[in-house]
Amino acid sequence: MAVTFATTSGTTCLICDTPNPSEAQSCKECSAPLAIVRDALAQDRDPNLVSIMGDSNVGKTVYLGFLLDMLSQRAHNFEAVPKGAYSVDLAQIVISHMAHRMFPPKTAIEMDEWCWAYYQVCRRGRASKIIDLVMPDIAGEAVAAELESPATFRIIQNLLGRSSGTLLLVDAALAANGSAQPDFFALKMLSYIDSMFTTKKRRKIELPVAVVFTKADYCPTCFDDPRSFAQANLNRLWNMCDSRFACVEFFACSVIGSLGYCGGENDDVVTSIPLHTALNGVLEPFEWIVDQL
Amino acid sequence: MALNLFSRKRATRPAASGMGRGAGYVPAGETALPDDPLKRALQQGRLGLLLHVPDDAADPRQSEAMRRRAAQQFDERFGMVPEGLASITTSVQDQPGAPEVDHEIEAFLLARHAVTNEDYQFFVDDGGYDQLELWPEDIWPHLVGFKDHSGAAGPRFWRKGRHDKRLARHPVVGVNYYEAAAYSEWAGLCLPTSPQWQMAASWRVRSEAAADRRYPWGDALDLERCNIWAAGHARTLPVNACPSGAAPNGVLQLIGNVWEWTRSDFDCVDDQGRRVIGEMPMKCIRGGAFDTYFPWQAVSAFQSGLTLLTRAHNVGFRCASNIVDEC
Amino acid sequence: MDCGSTVATSPDATNVVHTSQAIFTSIPSPISRGYRLVACGADLSAQEKREITQRSPSHGNLLAVEPGGFGLLSYSLSSGRQCVGLTRPAGAEHTARGGSRVHTHMAILSPSDFLRFHCDPCRVIDALRTAVGDEPLLKPLARLPIIELHAVVPTADAPAEIIEAARRLLAALFVRTTRLAVVGIADSFAALRLLMSGAPLALRRRLSLSSGIRLSQARKFDLVFAGSERVSAERAADKREIKLFDCGSEAPSAATPFDRWVAFCKRRWMDGRTAALDRLSVRLDQEPRGDPLSRIASLCDDLDAVASASAAQLAERLRRHRDEPASMPVHADLLREFRVAAESRRSALEGENVEDAPRPAVGGDR
Q: Do A82 and A8 lie in a common domain?
């Protein structure tokens, strides 16, 4: 059903439907930039929301930052134009840090610190449609808190409810080391999505889900066959995808070629240093999601 | 206007059946080698050995002939790097003003190409993985893990001990530091040190106008001259690709295509002076690769580190030889 | 830098409360990692846990990350209980991406327990700091026991610039229509302590606030001391129904109906009578209105002046307050106290007059 988002008296948030003053920059409820609404209205096209979900420290910020930067550089024949300067913030933060051999700061749980990106994307050299993509970089802790106790961060529910596709990032390094945490988190995430979209007839969920195994440089076999990797190391996730999702694909990606560590003897924390980048498999999940739209 | 937001179409593609790599693998055939050991060594590219072959008491002229042919191949396959200077940063934060150590480099020989799959095949066929004298003793227990996809001894991405013949002239990848070092020793050569590699790429010869070059060809990035991410190939190229990116001595692809193992330890500190270490000891790798996203990580002065047993898809190596014949 | 500048010196033995507690921080565990509620009392409801998770500070949100630095937050939960949190740096973030780990230890008080602290989060923080010690608890049990907090009466001496800042802020609080982000105060905890002593109880009860914690729209606090980060506070406040309040600004504040009360508070602070002011304010349990507060302030001033008033002054003041209606019980008490004191003073003055009058001759013609 068509919904009007701009009124004479204010702007309605794209994500949570909260009415906001017309001059407001971000939603007073969920802090999503209202420029997205204004830009979307100006384009006269329906924007597509692509949500990127995953546990804390799985690599959402780095993944999304590199993805956006690669799109801006026309990788894989994509042409992507940021709509609004705010859309470039995340890529700038990630690239600036990684170029200096540092990881970007942890994404805080406070919603007003999340970066939002709104890009117009199309394939070059074809008479293909232009897709408007809205992609927020959210905190893994917010996702975890929402899964633990729904309605803690309603924005997660709103994002997923309005997503045209979801990238579910899973830590391949942890999974390959035998930790069950990534598997359980992914199962919770998919169960949450299932409970949002399930119908009486128990049809499979149509929402395209790209399961992306991050940090796959730790376990290179993940690149060879991500599906087999999922089946072998994340069986709960695998079974859930098989049972309830009609459109799911598995990918592996990494951005770090080599990782160093440093920490003094008295330090209780070791700092990780990305020694050099080696992008592998970053665009393919996104490409697949775009193909489903 | 009204927006019909987030309308979702039915998915048009069912879940794919699998995305395993290695589709269409074409194994390279066997290469017939002569019985004569010297001729066989020449064909295998074990030039370092041939230069030192003792005179055969039965046929000294053949020994001399083999040495001359080896020397000829050396000239074709190696370039001379003149003596010079290499300033290696000791800080992992490579910024202007970062502390450096200067290394005086004596002239040496560096292979014009990285070792190819075709080259490495000779090593595998010769039973290189079983010749324990080529491997450090503490690595022997790990040799069982140096297998290809099918479980045969060989680089990671091979199958049944054979390379994909479509990649014969591409640099061999999926080899760790010990495999690179073992091949080099088998060939009578060695891996370059990190300062030697940097000297070859920066061409900082001794002269009044000594200056580092950012690239072997000069100071400006040119995507026609190197295979990094921005060039858009997204895979390795044959070792003779990008000829315009050669150093003055004809050495190709020092920048881009694949990272290259050196025999130097990776020894850097962070901005607080704390040593940067890996999960196990690391050696320096140089040059950047086809998937190096940041152009400034594919310059002559940039060095990274990689743990010794890593068999990465984008790391190869090339061989070096001292002119004075000691490695 | 938000370091507390006051030292509690007078333990109040009658005010010991037992409350629930909770800890929000980032600790690795086999099940989860990252910022979350890592431990809490068994009596916290699911809704309370949600609200605490929504409003607690996470990575990069503590302004004072040096050792000894701290922040505080205070807000009502929808259950009616009050959450008061002490936020401190707790070493480096464990996920190896740098930055300081933020640790918030909270007391969850019932309304009656919060009242025993005069609904003053500064007092709760004093008690909490004493109870939990100097080091943040990084290996807590999942279920935290009830914690015993001892209310103390703080000594609240403050320099003149802090007093002036508190005065301006108190005036702004009475008339605010939006949330306030405060910048331009060197020691916001000291200013907050003064502020609470002059705020009527009704105002204290419903005021959500933070000090030393980054201004975040997500937390929706009424009052945020944003430290020295003026630019980020400006940006965060811009067009978001948050007003930036610069205590260091030279611009005079607009007149308000509460000016007399605010001026009275300032005099009390400057005279070192903050505790007495606090005892008065905590009895002001009705929605603050300018006129009643002004009358109470005037009455208190007159009460102070009784001991040195002349007969004429006394008469004038008695006349002023003779028919004054009491707006609330404390007002009635003060009127009674004033009348008693005034009568006593008048009697004393009359006694003096009798002693001073000329005595008639006694015992015949001299």
A: no
